[in-house]
From TrEMBL:
<keyword id="KW-0813">Transport</keyword>
<dbReference type="GO" id="GO:1990281">
    <property type="term" value="C:efflux pump complex"/>
</dbReference>
<feature type="domain" description="CusB-like beta-barrel">
    <location>
        <begin position="324"/>
        <end position="386"/>
    </location>
</feature>
<dbReference type="Pfam" id="PF25989">
    <property type="entry name" value="YknX_C"/>
</dbReference>
<feature type="domain" description="YbhG-like alpha-helical hairpin">
    <location>
        <begin position="134"/>
        <end position="246"/>
    </location>
</feature>
<dbReference type="InterPro" id="IPR058637">
    <property type="entry name" value="YknX-like_C"/>
</dbReference>
<comment type="similarity">
    <text>Belongs to the membrane fusion protein (MFP) (TC 8.A.1) family.</text>
</comment>
<feature type="coiled-coil region">
    <location>
        <begin position="126"/>
        <end position="160"/>
    </location>
</feature>
<dbReference type="InterPro" id="IPR058792">
    <property type="entry name" value="Beta-barrel_RND_2"/>
</dbReference>
<dbReference type="Pfam" id="PF25881">
    <property type="entry name" value="HH_YBHG"/>
</dbReference>
<dbReference type="GO" id="GO:0015562">
    <property type="term" value="F:efflux transmembrane transporter activity"/>
</dbReference>
<feature type="domain" description="YknX-like C-terminal permuted SH3-like">
    <location>
        <begin position="396"/>
        <end position="459"/>
    </location>
</feature>
<feature type="signal peptide">
    <location>
        <begin position="1"/>
        <end position="28"/>
    </location>
</feature>
<protein>
    <submittedName>
        <fullName>Efflux transporter periplasmic adaptor subunit</fullName>
    </submittedName>
</protein>
<dbReference type="InterPro" id="IPR006143">
    <property type="entry name" value="RND_pump_MFP"/>
</dbReference>
<keyword id="KW-0175">Coiled coil</keyword>
<dbReference type="InterPro" id="IPR059052">
    <property type="entry name" value="HH_YbhG-like"/>
</dbReference>
Length: 474
């Protein structure tokens, strides 16, 4: 590589010398007669960094570039950007026909609402089963209490109450019986009416029945519950327990139905959300801020999910991969400055990454360099040359075409008070098609950079100066 670099330098110097000789021949004979004004290009001489030889090359890339692919199937209704347009993150790039997705979304919503109603219905069944369980448990408690009472027999207090009821009923019967006998005598004597006599006899009958009921209740308490009563009470307990088991089974069935309804509802919600997402994805947006580098779709085109539609990248900062020989890689460091040249414009880049492996085919290691591009005038795909910036010394640099030489005496034409003044100079290094001026010029001098070969010492330089640079107009 170093041998190739030296050969390239020799060829460049030879070509420059030949150009200067040819130019010198055209102005070898100096005429003392001043010519009319000549259209030329004038540039101010400035101090510039002395860069190393540009011995590396690479292709510019966007610093952050991404392929934007379609995320839905369908027809593209319209695209909203063109190549070169700047876009912000989330900017709409294209819109697809959403008719099908809107219909699917409406259907998914209806299914979701139906499933939600199924969950509510199943929940109501579970709540009803809960109530049935509570009711069945209450019936069991009541039946067990009744059976326990029968098994335990009457309490002493209940027997005493029954005996008191018999005594009271006997007293009432005897009283009513005596009253009826007296009323009968008075009826026979004509002292009371037939109706009064009949009412007195009826009260005796009622009192006798109340006495019989009280005596029977006392007899039952004294005798205790019968086997038939105990059997019936036990059957009541069994029946209440069966009711509880049935209610529990109904509850389990309701819970299973609710779980199934909930699962159906969740499936419906997922389907709805998926359809809503598909509808959203029918509008294609940029995932990053940058510039549209490539456009691969057009209005009316059928698109499929996953197919590339645009390439968007950030070109306010560019990057380039430089293939550095592995023998030189140790002299490269992260954050190191690198001179980048494109069409005679030089910018300073910064090493952002040194790749960890060697290319087995070329024996080189890629070094990534970041380059600021605020005016967006450098483009991805352009080929640049680069050199590592080790020497930061500055020198007066002039374009090769500004220097004229006849043998070993190079000179330039300075622009002084509107005239071309031949000025001898001493040259140093050659760098990037520019020559270092060791002596003869000072920073700020105005020199002719184009059209110098047609000039003689003292020629007037007209007002119409071709391609006058910004520096010369300062």
């Amino acid at each position: 590589m170093k041998l190739l670099n030296r050969t390239r330098i020799k060829m460049l110097v030879t070509g420059i010398t030949f150009a200067m000789v040819v130019s010198g021949c055209s102005s070898a004979s100096e005429d003392s007669t001043v010519k009319s004004s000549q259209p030329v290009e004038i540039q101010k001489v400035t101090m510039k960094p002395l860069a190393n030889e540009f011995n590396l090359a690479g292709t510019l890339q966007a610093s952050n570039q991404t392929a934007v692919s379609l995320e839905a199937n369908g027809r593209i209704l319209n695209t909203t950007v063109e190549v070169g347009d700047q876009v912000h993150k989330g900017a709409v790039l294209a819109k697809m026909d959403t008719t099908t997705y809107q219909l699917q979304l409406a259907q998914a919503k209806a299914t979701m609402e139906k499933a939600k109603a199924g969950v509510s219905q199943a929940d109501a069944s579970v709540q009803s089963a809960h109530a049935s369980i509570r009711n069945a448990q209450s019936q069991i408690n009541s039946a067990q209490s009744k059976l326990q009472e029968l098994n335990n027999g009457a309490k002493k207090q209940e027997i005493a109450q029954a005996q008191n009821a018999v005594t009271a009923a006997t007293n009432m019967y005897n009283k009513k019986k005596a009253d009826a006998a007296r009323t009968q005598s008075l009826f026979q004597a004509g002292a009371v009416s037939l109706t009064e006599n009949e009412n007195a006899q009826l009260e005796v009958t009622n009192a006798q029945k109340s006495l019989s009921d009280a005596q029977e209740q006392l007899s039952l308490l004294l005798a205790g519950a019968s086997q038939e009563q105990r059997t019936q009470a036990s059957a009541g307990v069994d029946q209440a327990r069966a009711g509880l088991e049935s209610a529990i089974a109904t509850q389990q069935q309701g819970l299973a139905s609710k779980a199934q309804a909930q699962a159906s509802y969740e499936d419906a919600v997922a389907a709805y959300e998926q359809t809503a997402l598909a509808l959203k994805k029918a509008t294609l947006t940029s995932p990053i801020a940058g510039v549209v580098i490539e456009k691969k779709v057009s209005d009316g085109q059928l698109g499929s999910s996953g197919s590339e539609a645009f390439i968007v990248g950030n070109i306010s900062t560019l990057k380039v991969l430089l293939p550095v020989p592995d023998s030189e890689i140790l002299s490269w460091k992260k954050d190191q400055k690198v001179n980048i040249s494109l069409y005679n414009e030089i910018r300073t880049g910064t090493v952002t990454q040194i790749y960890p492996s060697t290319n087995s085919k070329t024996g080189s290691i890629n070094v990534e360099v970041s380059i600021s591009n605020p005016e967006l005038n450098w483009k991805p795909g352009q080929v640049i040359s680069a050199s590592k910036s080790i020497n930061q010394n500055e020198a007066l640099l002039v374009p090769v075409e500004a220097v004229i030489s006849t043998g070993n005496d190079p000179y330039v034409f300075k622009a002084v008070n509107g005239k071309a003044v031949k000025t001898a100079i001493k040259l140093g290094k050659v760098t990037n098609n520019q020559l270092e001026v060791v002596s003869g010029l000072q920073a700020g001098d105005q020199i002719v950079t184009q059209g110098a070969g047609t000039l003689y010492n003292g020629d007037l330089l007209g007002n119409d100066v071709l391609g006058k640079s910004e520096e010369s107009s300062e």
